[in-house]
UniProtKB/TrEMBL annotation:
Main EC class the enzyme belongs to: isomerase
Keyword vocabulary terms for this entry: Isomerase, Rotamase
Keyword Isomerase in annotation: yes
InterPro entries per record: PPIase_dom_sf, PPIase_FKBP_dom
Any Pfam family the entry gives: FKBP_C
GO molecular function term, any single one: peptidyl-prolyl cis-trans isomerase activity
Similarity-based family: Belongs to the FKBP-type PPIase family.
Protein name from the UniProt record: Peptidyl-prolyl cis-trans isomerase
The reaction(s) this protein catalyses: [protein]-peptidylproline (omega=180) = [protein]-peptidylproline (omega=0)
SUPFAM superfamilies associated with the record: FKBP-like
Record-listed E.C. numbers: 5.2.1.8
Superkingdom classification of source: Bacteria
Length: 161
């Protein structure tokens, strides 16, 4: 009789622990993104800038929210004005006018932009502080962006299709 009681209890306990979700993948991403004592936080403190932290690890500051009606999707082709720089102030790329990157969809841009541009709507401007894992990673861009570099992007979402 005791065995008959132990089996359902054991099954119930096994079911409960098997369904328990962990945040291991989020914690791993957070650690890869620099964690709480990151280069981004040091930069923000040193430059007296305020920014919000997204669970992905990017920090952002919405400069202008936009029209609050038209938001991009991953398959949107974005038309933007942008400036990318490193934490040492070196400008690594920028648009001199509105660009759509030859019709490239948002899902084909760096993850930091994919996350950040969904936080504003058409006409909005955002400053993104992107950890390397969500920018150009350990490879960087030869002769332009060093490996493991934090990328600071000022982006204006002019339009999208």
């Amino acid at each position: 009789m005791k065995l008959m009681l132990k089996i359902p209890v054991a099954c119930l306990l096994l079911f409960m622990f098997a369904c328990t979700k962990t945040n291991d993948s989020l914690e791993l991403l957070s650690r890869q993104a620099g964690g709480p004592n990151s280069e981004i936080e040091s930069y923000l403190f040193a430059h007296n800038e305020a920014a919000l932290r997204d669970p992905s690890g990017i920090y952002y500051r919405i400069l202008t929210p936009g029209d609050s009606l038209h938001f991009v999707k991953s398959n949107s082709v974005v038309y933007v004005n942008y400036l990318n720089k490193l934490t040492n102030g070196q400008i690594v790329s920028s648009s001199f006018d509105v660009t759509n990157f030859d019709g490239r969809e948002l899902k084909d841009h760096i993850p930091g932009w994919q996350i950040g541009l969904t936080k504003i709507s058409k006409g909005g401007k955002i400053r993104l502080f992107i950890p390397p894992v969500l920018a150009y990673g350990s490879m960087g861009v030869p002769d332009i962006i060093p490996p493991n570099a934090v990328l600071i992007s000022d982006v204006e979402l002019v339009d999208f299709k």
